[in-house]
Fold:
Amino acid sequence: MHSKRETLISKKVFISLQFILFLVALLLLVACGKKEVKPVSAESQLAQEAFELADTIKKAYVKKDKSTLEEYTTLDGYRELVSAMKSFDSAELTFTPTWVEIRDSQVSLNISWKGTWTVRGKDTNESGLAVFVLEGSPLKLSRIQRENPFRQPE
Structure:
């Protein structure tokens, strides 16, 4: 049998081992838990701003909110957008950004879109690819190239 002294020593060793294991685990968590955070590039921020702008314009169009459309477009962009708009009772649009090209202060955002417009109870479905040309800081829509989703229903 073990003496009281041996039992006391083995308890101290056991407690010491537990403490050491706890410290090792804690150090591993602290050392492995830190991930290097890379700063977001200016191009990435600009692309994200372009995506958000396209979504804002889409929502304003569906709501027929011309004041929001005017706020997020240049003067020429607003004129083009409003002159292209057709009358509709309701609309649903889905935008999928497919490509962003950044040149100097101009951003070209390629968007694959699908839409359903209801006019006097009749649904019209269309889809296409549009290029939103965005300029300025903050970005504003200056023109739409290719198949304008806001020209529907035709």
User: Anything to note?
Assistant: The chain has a mean pLDDT of 86. The radius of gyration is 30 Å. The longest strand covers residues 90-103.
